[in-house]
């Protein structure tokens, strides 16, 4: 699921770098490493452990194939979500730089797709499930949820970048089932290791702090629903500024004249994240649902939500300390 | 690897980081048919490889590792694009041009990242990241993880080999055994972390006091950086 630089537009790459930096700085604050300095070498060696464990393949029961550990959920189960997110970010940085696995510009996308969903959505789910069911089911469900969200994110980021022509529906229908299978394998691998650790050293598998995210989760889902579905129904009339230009200049968009204007305009077009709030390849629609606008809506919600949550969380952190 | 190169060719790590990132940004910003426009951009990695006398064999192996993924995505384009476009005076199928552009972009981006990693030792890179105000904790994390990766890779290789020697007919390790096998590797990892921490504390380690050398950014290096990224940006603005 590591994205390459060739698939990303600069705007999507930089936006995701920003989102990742936000989550990382929140995790750093929350982790408060000065109080628990011992965690530092543990994070370092566990990051290296993820690399090593990925080399050891296991046979997938019932099939002829083999799989390996991804590591996101396992790190969260052993370190807690904040330390796990930071460890994964470092692992992905090393992969991008030294192994050409995922690009430098796509680094933000990769950390978000592989780290954010596993640590902050799949892991809390895992914690909740493990109280009611056994560890195998809990980790398979959590890994599947984490990977499905990550895979969908890959689809959205690729389409928003507009660097390849992939129909939204086809791409989604390809990515989601593939990652369903990978999720099940990841869940089994995580459960196998965690249950071994629980048996031999039970004190290691219960990290202290977990995020309380019921409210954030509900609000997030609601916002996604509104952004994704209702935005496509929303009015396509020109917005305030365009309307006023129409009134004053008699045309919706001002015509640019000089060569520099043209050059800058074309540059802006090629860099634009959501030109006119729609996908560049555009056009796809399922019934009344305009896919381009929906995806733009969902991305918009993500960006705004992240921007809004960071100051709030920092304030909360300051109160706690 | 990167420590082996000759000192006189050193470019400041911060310059390398900024130049590489700008370069990848410029490469990524070209549109899907811009194959010809990308060709002059290959001058930068080629120049770096020649000047720094980097190992072509090593670069080739990294490049090859990055190709399968992009090939799959590129190949998918052959099914989805059916238009024809004019390329100089010929009328060609657009899908092949998109495929070639994707491939070229991938090669250029991977080459740039590889040049960065081969010319800049990790300790110097850490210093550059610190001067970019990346939190100290993350930088120390990077150094620690990088330090232990190669150690653990050896250990994992030995583990796998030991299993394969005892069970020669298995293509992969049975899941029931795999759990305890990797679990043991994990427990060893924990113990090592404990020992590392104790050794660090005994030597008076603290996050704030850990010394990471930050090289000074001289005027010459600053000019070199600005001129290089300036050239990339001007090229991007001229060729649209």
Automatic annotation (TrEMBL), chain A:
It is a multi-pass membrane protein. The chain crosses the membrane at residues 7-28, 40-60, 72-98, 104-123, 135-160, 180-198, 219-236, 295-314. Its main location: membrane. InterPro entries: CbiM/NikMN (IPR002751), PDGLE_dom (IPR025937). The keyword Transferase does not apply. It is found in: Cell membrane. Keywords: Cell membrane, Membrane, Transmembrane, Transmembrane helix, Transport. One of its GO terms (cellular component) is plasma membrane. The keyword Manganese does not apply. GO terms for biological process: transition metal ion transport. This is Energy-coupling factor ABC transporter permease.
TrEMBL record, chain B:
GO terms for cellular component: plasma membrane. Signal peptide: none annotated. It is a multi-pass membrane protein. PANTHER family: SLL0384 PROTEIN. It comes from the Bacteria. It is found in: Membrane. InterPro entries: ABC/ECF_trnsptr_transmembrane (IPR003339), ECF_transporter_component (IPR051611). This is Energy-coupling factor transporter transmembrane protein EcfT. The chain crosses the membrane at residues 12-32, 38-55, 62-82, 94-118, 223-239. Keywords: Cell membrane, Membrane, Transmembrane, Transmembrane helix. Its main location: membrane.
């Amino acid at each position: 699921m590591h994205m390459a630089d060739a698939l990303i537009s600069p705007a999507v790459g930089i936006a995701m770098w920003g989102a990742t930096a936000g989550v990382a700085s929140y995790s750093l604050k929350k982790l408060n490493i000065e109080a628990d300095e011992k965690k530092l070498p543990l994070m370092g060696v566990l990051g290296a452990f993820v690399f090593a464990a990925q080399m050891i393949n296991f046979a997938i029961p019932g099939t002829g194939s083999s799989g390996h550990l991804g590591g996101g959920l396992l790190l969260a189960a052993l370190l807690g979500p904040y330390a796990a997110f930071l460890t994964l970010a470092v692992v992905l940085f090393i992969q991008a730089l030294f192994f050409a696995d995922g690009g430098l510009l796509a680094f933000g996308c990769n950390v978000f797709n592989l780290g954010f969903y596993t640590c902050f959505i799949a892991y809390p789910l895992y914690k909740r499930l493990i109280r009611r069911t056994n560890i195998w089911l809990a980790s398979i469900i959590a890994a599947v949820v984490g990977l499905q969200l990550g895979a969908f994110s890959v689809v959205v980021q690729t389409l928003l970048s507009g660097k390849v022509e992939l129909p939204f529906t086809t791409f989604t229908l390809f990515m989601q089932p593939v990652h369903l299978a990978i999720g099940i394998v990841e869940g089994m691998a995580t459960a196998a290791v965690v249950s071994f650790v629980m048996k031999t050293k039970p004190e290691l598998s219960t990290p202290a702090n977990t995020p309380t995210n019921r409210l954030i989760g509900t609000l997030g889902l609601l916002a996604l629903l509104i952004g994704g579905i209702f935005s496509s129904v929303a009015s396509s009339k020109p917005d305030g500024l365009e309307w006023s230009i129409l009134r004053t200049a008699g045309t919706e968009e001002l015509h640019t004249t000089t060569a520099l204007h043209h050059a800058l305009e074309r540059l802006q077009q090629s860099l634009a994240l959501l030109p006119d709030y729609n996908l560049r390849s555009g056009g796809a629609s399922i019934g009344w649902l305009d896919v381009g606008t929906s995806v733009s809506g969902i991305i918009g919600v993500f960006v705004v939500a992240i921007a809004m949550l960071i100051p709030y969380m920092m304030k909360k952190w300051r109160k706690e300390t | 690897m990167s420590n082996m190169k000759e000192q006189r060719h050193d470019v400041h790590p911060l310059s390398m980081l900024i130049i590489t990132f700008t370069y990848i940004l410029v490469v990524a910003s070209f549109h899907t048919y811009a194959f010809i426009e990308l060709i002059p951009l290959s001058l930068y990695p080629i120049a770096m490889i020649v000047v720094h006398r980097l190992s072509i064999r090593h670069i080739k192996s990294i490049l090859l590792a990055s190709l399968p993924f992009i090939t799959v995505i590129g190949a998918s384009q052959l099914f989805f694009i059916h238009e024809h476009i004019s390329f100089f005076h010929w009328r060609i199928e657009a899908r092949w041009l998109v495929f070639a552009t994707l491939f070229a972009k991938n090669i250029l981006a991977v080459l740039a990242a590889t040049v960065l990693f081969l010319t800049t030792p990790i300790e110097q890179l850490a210093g550059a990241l610190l001067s970019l105000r990346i939190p100290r904790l993350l930088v120390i994390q990077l150094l620690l993880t990088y330090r232990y990766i190669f150690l653990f890779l050896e250990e994992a290789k030995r583990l796998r080999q030991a299993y394969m020697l005892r069970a020669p007919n298995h293509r992969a390790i049975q899941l029931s055994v795999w759990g305890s096998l990797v679990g043991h590797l994990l427990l060893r990892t924990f113990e090592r972390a404990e020992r590392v921490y104790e050794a660090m504390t005994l030597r008076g380690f603290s996050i704030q006091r850990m010394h990471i050398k930050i090289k000074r950014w001289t005027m010459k290096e600053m000019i070199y950086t600005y001129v290089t990224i300036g050239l990339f940006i001007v090229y991007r603005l001229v060729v649209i």
